[in-house]
Amino acid sequence: MKRKKVTIVDYGLGNLLSLKRAFEFIGADVIISNEHKDIIDSPRIILPGVGAFPKAMEYIKNLKLDEILFSATRKEKPLLGICLGMQLLLSESEEFSLTKGLDLISGKVIPIPKNSKDKKKLKIPHVGWNSLILSDNLKSWDKTILRNNKILDEVYFVHSFMVSSEDVNHNVADCIYGDHKITAAIQKENIFGCQFHPEKSGKVGIQVLKSFLEL
Predict the structure, then answer these.
(1) Reduced 3-state DSSP string for 79-108
(2) What CATH number is attached to the domain comprising 195?
(3) Catalytic (active site) residue 197
(4) Into how many domains does the chain fold?
(5) What is the pLDDT of residues 82-108, one digit of tens each?
């Protein structure tokens, strides 16, 4: 049986090896590359990310990977952004200074509130396990990247900023942190994003990666 191919985009920031191991664990043929041909020829693309939004966009633009990612998504290739990679899919971010993103999904990246609604101080960054809940606009996760997952599945987060989608219909899952609702997964046609780290989320995260591999 032919192994399904995935290309992980290497632009200088990201959990590359742990992602590679996770995909290889489920039988994928994995390439880590920033070569344009590798990315545009790949049937599935992963955009990882750990670090700051402005620096990530600087690296991406310097390598002209923004143009390649636009071309790939126009060819309807599945693209999955993970953690900072998901945030980069949005129009812009408020991290440090207002920085334009890839604008593949309309919206903004904003800071996680420092206090709960009852004024209790929250630990920032949001680090650790949290439960996934269905976004208000959906009745189920059928036909989403979480179609093989269950409500309240726990996944692992590490982030200080969160996504605010312009169109709530792009929201797939949320989590609750200090009584604030935080977008945990997004989807627009062939473009997907997970704020959490599937590769660090055990069997639940592996199930997310398997669903992406099936696309």
Answers:
(1) EEEECHHHHHCCCEECCCCCEECCCCCCEE
(2) 3.40.50.880
(3) yes
(4) 1
(5) 999 999 999 999 999 999 999 999 999
d(CA 158, CA 194): 12
Separation of alpha carbons 143 and 148, rounded Å: 10
Residue 105: CB atoms within 10 A of its CB come to 23
Each residue's pLDDT tens digit, 27-57: 999 999 999 999 999 999 999 999 999 999 9
Tokens of residue 170, six digits: 């792009």
60 C-beta neighbours (distance < 10 Å), count: 24
- Helices then strands, counting H and E runs in the chain, come out as 6, 14
| Known active-site residue 199 | yes
* Catalytically annotated residue among 36, 159, 197, 214: 197
d(CA 86, CA 128): 18
Domain span holding position 132? 5-213
- Among this protein's residues, is 175 annotated catalytic? no
Kindly state the tokens that stand for 46. 């992963």
